[in-house]
Each structure stands twice: as structure tokens, then as C-alpha cells.
Design goal:
Elements (H helix, E strand, L loop, with lengths): L5 E5 L2 E5 L7 E4 L2 H21 L19
Antiparallel strand pairs: 1-2, 2-3
């Protein structure tokens, strides 16, 4: 499965969340660190969902960029 992750800059680095997995979040000092932490967060989140018998949601969020004149 491939989930869309939204990254946002913060005062101390970056934060990230996955709209299709409420509560699955991460924050790091760099974008790369946040990516790695998010990978670990998703794996742990899905493992817990399976352990407690919750259905794993299909990815439905689509993220795209749009260009506009400056």
C-alpha cells in the first residue's frame, strides 16, 4: 500500500501526518529524519491495528502540486 504523507515545516524542523491513518504522525529536525520517523510510525501504527483486530484502511488521499504565477 502507498499512503500520501503531508509534510509541513515547523519552527524546529518538519512534522508529518497521513490523512488516511488518523493519529499517525511524526516530527523531526530535517525532512529526511521526518521521512524515516514517519516510515517507522506507519509500520508501528499498522502493526497495532492488526494486533487489535482493526481493519487496515485503503489509501484514498491524493496529494498533488499546482503551479501558479508568482
Amino acid at each position: 500500500m502507498k499512503y500520501s504523507i503531508l509534510f509541513e515545516p515547523t519552527a524546529t524542523g518538519y512534522s508529518a501526518h497521513i490523512p488516511d491513518l488518523p493519529g499517525c504522525v511524526a516530527a523531526g529536525a530535517t525532512l529526511e529524519e521526518t521521512r524515516q520517523l514517519m516510515q517507522e510510525a506507519v509500520e508501528g501504527h499498522l502493526e497495532c491495528m492488526r494486533e487489535f483486530g482493526y481493519a487496515i484502511p485503503e489509501p484514498t488521499t491524493v496529494a498533488e502540486g499546482i503551479e501558479v504565477p508568482a
